[in-house]
Amino acid sequence: MRAAGRQRVEELLAAASDLMAERGYEATTMAEIALRAGAKIGSLYRFFPNKEAVADALVQRHIAILEEEYAALAQRAATLSPEALADVLIELLVTLHPRVKSLSALMEARTDRMEIRNRARGHALTGIAAALRVCAPGLDETLARDIAAVVLNTMKILRGMITKDAPTTPGAPDELRRMNRLYLSDRLAPFRDHGG
Length: 196
Description:
By secondary structure, the chain is mainly α. It has nine helices and no strands. It holds the Pfam family TetR_N.
């Protein structure tokens, strides 16, 4: 019975993640989640009393994945140049997207329960800032978070270009990658020989 319940929760969360990635948080309904999962609406409500509870479960899942990936990135960051770190961050976005596909929708959610959005953004910023500080040990926490916010927004734009949700041309994603490399090189270089 427990294994069946865990399997049903997995199916419901996968359906919710797909729908939120396709339609956004606000446009996704509980009925659509149940339908996509091939479940009865009562089954969905048995595990999740409302859409916010579904979003909360997805955020927790995404945060766990991000924390694991950012911890691995922080270990590698000491050996990376700023340009290589920029490439690794972009590659991380591409490889993580299938596992955290609804994260962007949850981070952009306009809901009264802003803690959902703030928690997702906060963990992404913290993970990127930690990698930046390992790569450039003299970088202070405030500036690291500011740079992380720019990088996170650049990653969001690149995701939009790749999925064709943002205006783009065939060469634009490569130009954005180059811009990200130049930006991180410029911002991190002065702090690479300090500390640590």
